[in-house]
Amino acid sequence: MEGELMEADVVVSSRLSFKKIQSSEKYPKGQSTRRWKHLKQILQSENCTPDLPNYVNIESPPSTQPCKRICDVTGFEAPYVDPRTNLRYANAHVFKTLRSLSPDQVHQYLSIRNAAVVLK
Amino acid sequence: MTGDDGDQINAVGRGSMSFVSRIRRQTDYNTYPPSIPIVIDNGASYFRIGWAGETEPRVVFRNIVQRPRHKATGETVTIVGDLDPALMKYFDCTRSGPRSPFDSNVVYQFEIMEYILDFAFDRLGANGSRIDHPILITECACNPVQSRSKMAELLFDTYGVPAVAFGVDAAFSYKYNQLHGICKEDGIVLCPGFTTTHAIPFVDGEPVYKGSCRTNIGGYHVTDYLKQLLSLKYPFHSSRFTWEKAEDLKLEHCYIAPDYASEVRLFQEGTKEAEEKTRYWQLPWIPPPTEVPPSEEEIARKAAIREKQGQRLREMAEAKKLSKINEMESELSSLRFLVKQLDQVDEDDIPTFLSDTGYASRQELESTILKVTQSLRKARGEPMNEPSEGEENTDSLNNEKYPLMNIPDDMLTPEQLKDKKRQMFLKSTTEGRLRARQKRNEEELEKERRNQLEEERRRENPDFYLEEMRAQYKEVLERVEQKKRLKTNGSSNGNNKSGGVGRGERLSAAQRERMRLLTTAAFDRGKGEDTFGARDEDWQLYKLMSKDNDDDDEQPDSDEAELARLTSRLQEIDPTFVQKVEGESLTSGEVPPRVRQLTEEDYKIVIGIERFRCPEILFHPNLVGIEQVGLDEMAGASIRRLPHEETELVEERLTSSILMTGGCSLLPGMKERLECGIRMIRPCGDPIVVVRAMDPVLDAWRGASAFAANLNFLSNAFTKMDYDEKGEDWLRKYQIRYNNL
């Protein structure tokens, strides 16, 4: 190890005294990407009683207030929607820039809002 | 940047708040007896660990792990926390990105968790054969039991911990602040964290999870939003907007507007206030070196060099020409000598004599002589033989090459006739070629003359000429476009509906003709059977049709050629000429892409509206597509969810003690906005008091530390035996009682 690195001491040494089983033994090099269950899977396999609060129970409800519509490009109030691309825009000036966007950018703007149509 | 005590501090942020990473190894591990618990705040953004009863965690770092390969040794090493960019050069980071053990706010990757715990304990100074202290670790509200049990397993089995307790970080923060009188026994804690936001009501000092709610939006989403907006606004600089940079910008410049709509209007109208609120980030930019016009001497020197080079080339050419001339002269003389010799030799001996030299007959020899003399003359620069002499030559050549031409047919044998035909053919082709060449020459001369005329006209009156040209160009363009339009049946540019015949659209003359022919052919002649192809004459129909099409095509050709000529001419002489690209719609093709110099302006990043647009998503998550309530409404939702027997009297008390904690609550303007928002959803006249925690970032750890320092902490913790005996169900119901604080 280079001197600078040793001094900085950022690397975790592979053998620690206070551990009963070292990481290198627990996770042998071959199968380093062990399949851990993702949150969705954990939640599915959880058999929980619905009356007690659990992770799924306490999710917030959807908003009851009317959705705020802001222009995708500038952030102003946007009462209009472009029929071709489904982007919201505030005025004619913004509309001009909208029409000159590349399809890639349009897709990105929409995906920020989670409104992009993904063709698989 | 190093602080007083030599810690490696990466401080980021403004004012008193700082996200500090502290990773120096502590040396006083052994001074703590095994009864003192270790307190861990395991957050999605930062990991904090320290001793119970203290006010500051000893070790703080970002909760991510990287496993790059060491370049020199090739082994894979583990690096926890932010990697110092100066040390990056030792590692090959291609296959390792930073990974977090969290999925949303739940720990699911325990391998990474293990690396993190390794690092944390190591830095705390742990030695000995096991971690001999009870551990208090935070988790998210209503943590799934699988995650909890795996965490307990990890701590018990791998580290040999005697006892473990789990608590919720927001609750610890609230209790800590309650201890210090900031908030009361009953209240609500609002905790916008890194990936999620919680609202948990407290009744009688204990959190009521039944009434809590969680929205999946947090500081991570705000930073991500900012990053994406800036990348889209400035695609040229998109590589500059890394996630870390966006986080820095967020911490420094973002704020929460008291009312989004009115703030936006300020910017829309371009008021002075808006100007003041806009921040500019100037990227480093080096102006391209301006070209100094070359001075007089420079020009003179360059010209002299060029002259010299030209002269050298000319000399070389001269020398070559001379040598060639000499060669040819010598050849000529040798040939002449040969001819003279031939004269002296007998007729019969000619073939044998000539076989040495490589010439077949006397005529060949003479023709070669002629050729060489001609080329010699040309090389010497003497005028070419006049066409008359050429013709004579050709005539004599003709007579020689085509000896059979002039003899009338009936005197020749059939074989000779064939020969004669061949010769006639040859002669006509060569003559044809000659004629074509002549015509081409004439045409070129003609064109030259025309160009000369044009040039003169242009020189006389440049403006007028230009105008004329432009008008002509427009006319021709119109004609060509119209033809095109007719051809494609007037279908517009974006309209891809079929230009097919038979849909009632305008047909050109050619297509009408085609239709007519086809329908007459297909006309049922009454027999009920289609006998179209039976006769050969039927197929002539197609010849007619295609001929019609051809007629149509010839005319536009000339127009298009004219157009091309005009375009090129205009491009030469007119500096402002813009070629109208055919087929482009007028709306988009208006301004041709002009390549202009990049100015300093292009390198200036303007952050105006984004300053408050990004944190707005905490209050309106549907701006980023998450269909849940925002911060202000969460308080209302939480109160609504409380079990009914408690609500009546408690509601007022709840709203009069609302605590903001968590990293995101440091954004300026949040307090006012929350007050406003909550007032809107509560009945009029209710007391609403919103306070920020003393230190939103560290209070969770401090609360946990205070909790662990309490004497009956152990009654809240469970040991390995408990865990083994009582099983998962018990673990699910396990909760600590916060009121000990």
Distance between the termini of chain B: 38 Å
CATH architecture of the largest domain in chain B: 2-Layer Sandwich
Proportion in helices of chain B:
40-55%
Uncertain spans of chain B:
1-18, 383-396, 490-504, 581-594
Number of strands of chain B: 20
| Mean pLDDT metric of chain A | 80
Helix content of chain A: 25-40%
| Shape designation of chain B | elongated
Radius of gyration of chain A: 26 Å
Shape of chain A: extended
The CA-CA distance between the termini of chain A, in Å, is: 47 Å
Q: Which strands sit side by side, in order, in the main sheet of chain A?
A: 1-2
Strand content of chain B: 5-15%
Strand-residue fraction of chain A? Answer: under 5%
Show the largest interface.
A-B, 61 and 85 residues
User: Which parts of chain A are unreliable, with pLDDT below 50 for 5 consecutive residues or more?
Assistant: none
- Highest-level CATH class of the largest domain in chain B: Alpha Beta
Number of β-strand runs of chain A:
2
Overall average pLDDT of chain B: 79
Quick one: biggest sheet of chain B? 6 strands, mixed
Keywords (chain A): Nucleus, Transcription, Transcription regulation
InterPro entries (chain A): INO80C/Ies6 (IPR029525), Vps72/YL1_C (IPR013272)
Pfam families (chain A): YL1_C (PF08265)
Protein name (chain A): INO80 complex subunit C-like
Describe it for me?
Chain A is mainly alpha-helical. Helix content of chain A is 29%, strand content 3%. Chain A has five helices and two strands. Chain A has a two-stranded antiparallel sheet. Chain A is extended and about 70 Å long. Chain A starts with a helix and ends in an 8-residue tail after the last helix. The model of chain A has no long low-confidence stretch (mean pLDDT 80). In chain B, the strands form six sheets. Chain B has a six-stranded mixed β-sheet with strand order 3-2-1-10-11-20, sandwiched between helices. In chain B, strands 12, 13, 14, 15, 18 and 19 form a six-stranded mixed β-sheet that branches. In chain B, strands 4-6 form a two-stranded antiparallel sheet. Chain B is elongated, with a radius of gyration of 48 Å. The model of chain B is unreliable at 1-18, 383-396, 490-504 and 581-594 (pLDDT under 50). With 741 residues, chain B is of the alpha+beta class. Chain B contains 21 helices and 20 strands. The two termini of chain B are 38 Å apart. In chain B, helix 3 (169-179) crosses helix 20 (699-709), helix 4 crosses helix 5 (243-253) and helix 17 (631-641) packs antiparallel against helix 18 (644-655). In chain B, 48% of the residues lie in helices and 10% in strands. Chain B has four domains: 4-181 and 696-740, Nucleotidyltransferase, domain 5, CATH 3.30.420.40; 219-285 and 615-692, no CATH class; 297-401; 461-495 and 503-519 and 544-575. Chains A and B meet through helix 1, helix 3 and helix 5 of A and strand 6, helix 1, helix 2, strand 15 and helix 4 of B. Chain A: It is found in: Nucleus. Chain A: This is INO80 complex subunit C-like.
